[in-house]
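The following record pairs a protein chain with its ligand, S-adenosylmethionine.
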Amino acid sequence: MALQIRGLFAHQPQVHNGSQVRLPSGVSRFIRNAVPWAVGGPLVEAETAPEQWSYALSYPLHQDAMRGLASDDALIVECKLLVHKGDLGIGVVDADQSSFVSREGTVHASAQPTTVRIWVREPAKAGHVLFRNIAADAKTTHFELLSIRALVMPGGRECHASWSSLANSSIPLDELRRVLAWAQATWDRPFPEHPTPSTSAALKIVDVGMLPSVLCRSETLVTSQDKSLADWKMETDDGPILDYLWRSIAPRRHLEFGTWEGFGATLVARATEAEIWTLNLPGGETNADGETLYSSTDSGRFIGRLYREAGYEARVHQLLCDSREFDTRPFETSPFDTVLIDGGHTPDVVASDTAKALRVLKQGGACVWHDFCPDPDALSHNLAPLGVVQAVVENFEDWSVQFEQLFWVRKSWILVGLGRR
Ligand SMILES: C[S@@+](CC[C@H](N)C(=O)[O-])C[C@H]1O[C@@H](n2cnc3c(N)ncnc32)[C@H](O)[C@@H]1O
């Protein structure tokens, strides 16, 4: 359980050269410090200098407030921000502000506030929370910092997973449940949980180099090897693996949960002759606080933009609905060869999408879940895999029996189920 640490941040930020900053008046700052819940409005509003990477402002950390931390305690900095224009980077840096001691979170311009959590592995080296301009092309970034707080997770700094070692070729479910519980705590348990009984079951791992033999293909597959799974990107890192899967399976009918701009649908259209159905919320996805999850490109004409621009529109059927209301009946008599589950990433939506996918998947068909990644580091830095891994843990018994093989592709954010023929 994460506990809040008080008095960690200086009340006033340091303002860096070239940025324009507006602080609330002295009186409202005084009231905010005395009764934080009683005062609305931002802690600070800033416009960065136009240079990419220029520092805008930083909050010094009072080392005294961290004295009680044990060496294995983890520190989390949580900021709520409204970015009006541009792209903002937020990270924790050392005392002389020359190196990061956390990963850098990013927030893009949006009409809604966004909450970022920065997981600090080495609190002893933390000196400042830094806000900087990461927008390219000499654009400034204009933002409001709405709140900032620090949390400590006792004994939570490290989590080891046996499957980080290449010598291990399966993921014991009970161990995955323990890793998941640790990662859920780093996020303050964001999703309702459904306890599952202890089991001796294990999820198989297929190393990416073994995919050709599992899929009976001779072409080799070249993928990212040195990159950390916490920094994984669908387009550059999972794209080649998905492309390989689709070329190997060669579906004639493909269903995708979650279109967004159409990257995944374009990949299938380019790799195969498939007729594709892809569905998305018409107005895009928001979290419980009403914050948009995929910037302003997750609604209206942006949905499916990439497959239309690539000229595949004639082969793609765009469905606009909440997947939980998707009526599978018209497809049950003409099922799909492949399904990609990449829509909502909360465990309830993943479970609902998977139940529907299984109803419309052909016998012997393949179901692929994107954003399944059991790496502790990835889980503590990204909410999407946390929801997918939780859904898989909670439904493992039901889902695994539906497939001849169910495996995580290491290294990737991909889980594959190959149906019984
Ligand atoms: C990770 S993105 C999809 C990425 C896409 N597959 C690609 O290849 O770029 C997830 C998408 O699912 C959509 N989504 C989230 N919850 C949904 C739901 N309940 N029903 C339908 N779509 C949903 C979001 O609006 C978002 O566009």
